[in-house]
Amino acid sequence: MPETITDPRDPRVADFHDLHAGDRRPGTERGTGPVVVEGVTAVERLLGSGLRVRCVYGVPGRVGALDVPAGVPVYEADKWVLSETIGFRLTRGVLASCERPEPPALADLLAGARRIAVLEGLNDHENIGSIGRSAWALGIDALLLDPTCADPYYRRSVRVSMGHLLTTPLRVLTDWPGDLARVRAAGFTTVALTPGAEVDLRDVDPVQHPRTALLLGAEGPGLTDAAMAAVDVRARIPMRPGVDSLGVAAAAAVAFAQLR
């Protein structure tokens, strides 16, 4: 049975205190600490993922509808106490926290993948979440991020991905762009998506290139010169004249579908 929370500062729900200030507490190193998951769909995906869930917290109707594994602490509160706990009005009605997924070794991640996406310099959490959702839907087997990307397990990233980032094999590369050589050595054709390229993405035949790593850069600056120099192919999405580019999340979805 869920336990009722009446004090917004109750230490049992400390994972959710003041989320408006960010998921990472002062003094906590980037990329560490629990993952906060928001919304019924994402929480349900977490509960079925096999990850270690720390607790579930929400309004009674939403909490009661969840199939929470035995042993996971479950807390409920009215919407006003819940809002005071997290620092804003939560329309989705339920949150959960879990331990961070353990990143797979790069060699293991590459060995089990056919299509991967490699992200450089993406500092918008919602773009990362949207790319994670498209990646899961469109046959991308894993995600690699350079060290300057935003945290893929930040609450907004996970929410926008509908929880798919929690179960997608994912690793932050420490040697950038040097680790791209390991990707190529594993048999992947590395393709940089950039609007100024001469190669049409439709000409990158997924049959001829059965293992593909697609590189995506931040909106505005795009991929760095160092990353572009390390790839096999530079390709563009064909668009109407006068259109400079798509947003990175939209471009990723188009490219993922094209390279299936």
From TrEMBL:
Spell out the residue ranges making up region: Disordered: 1-32
tRNA/rRNA methyltransferase SpoU type domain span: 116-256
Could you tell me which InterPro entries the record lists for this protein?
A: Alpha/beta_knot_MTases (IPR029028), Ribosomal_eL30-like_sf (IPR029064), rRNA_Methyltransferase (IPR051259), SpoU_MeTrfase (IPR001537), tRNA_m1G_MTases_N (IPR029026)
Gene3D superfamilies, alphabetized: 3.40.1280.10
- Composition bias type Basic and acidic residues, residue spans: 1-28
State the superkingdom: Bacteria
Q: Can you provide one Gene Ontology molecular function annotated for this UniProt record?
A: RNA binding
Keywords on record: Methyltransferase, Transferase
UniProt-listed GO biological process terms: methylation; RNA processing
Looking up Pfam families in the UniProt record yields:
SpoU_methylase
The record's section on PANTHER family has: RRNA METHYLASE, RRNA METHYLTRANSFERASE 3
**This protein is called what?**
tRNA G18 (Ribose-2'-O)-methylase SpoU
Question: Organism source for this protein?
Answer: Klenkia taihuensis
